[in-house]
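I hope you will forgive my troubling you with a question about protein structure. The matter concerns a single protein, recorded as an amino acid sequence and a row of backbone structure tokens. Please examine both parts with care and let me know of anything in them that strikes you as inconsistent. Thank you for your consideration; the sequence and its tokens are set out here:
***
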Amino acid sequence: MPEVDVTAGPIEYGDSGGSGRPIVFIGGLPHDESLWDGVVAELSPEFRCLTPVLPLGAHRKQMRPDTDLTLSGMSRIVTDFLAALDLRDAVVCFNDWGGAQTMVANGETEGVGGLVLISCETEDNYPPGLAGQVAALSGWMPGGFSVMRMVLLSPALRQLPLTYGQMSKKGVPDALLRRWLEPLKRREIRRDLGRYVRDVRRGKRQMRAATPELRGFEKPVLVVWDREGAMMPNASGRELAGAFPNSRYVELPDCFTLIPIDQPEALAREIRQFAGRAA
């Protein structure tokens, strides 16, 4: 995979190439670029699709030891990625993870032409649901990430609501989940993730402070939510859409939080329409 060096460290990314409008896809914990394969397959003939891998546990390259891996620091990686590749008028899509809010609040949206927020963290749901809280606790427990990895690798245990049961209605294929969890075997990757999840209190404050600032973002915003899942409440999605002055809210059926896994074609249709209108 290609990589680009930003302030935080080396960021690997997928790139479909082409001269179409850039669409940047950001996942959560612990997802790599393959989360978006189904969506990219639908959109890449028309758009340049880029899938950077943030240091949220599925990344393969260690971050610099002094880098800021708070919620705001993570969202700054997205801004630095756009700048490093000289992307302009990009549509930036976030699923599960709520870094878009701090990115906007910190005034770091140069290069952004529109946002797509897909069943993601919000002010009243950070970290999200039981699974998010358990992941945060894992960062404080000796060997916590190793235990988390072992649990998620068990097909039976990962269906529990406090692990991965509310993430995907279809179910994440075993091979894909193993791919996401493979980097957590390495101490330096666990160290990066730990620096993020152990800072959840500051992350909550940053998310809370960011929410009122969203009204100042006047570019188009599409909020796409899963209709049936419990991890990301529908009321939170509607409130998030209402926080922006120029937004549209859509709910998709037959899916949970990981809409790119459960409903890639339907999600791609919404993004395609949005990217065309927001151009």
Observations:
- The domain at 3-126+199-277 is CATH 3.40.50.1820 (Rossmann fold).
- The beta strands are 3-6, 9-15, 22-26, 48-52, 90-96, 112-120, 221-226, 247-252.
- The first helix runs from residue 37 to 43.
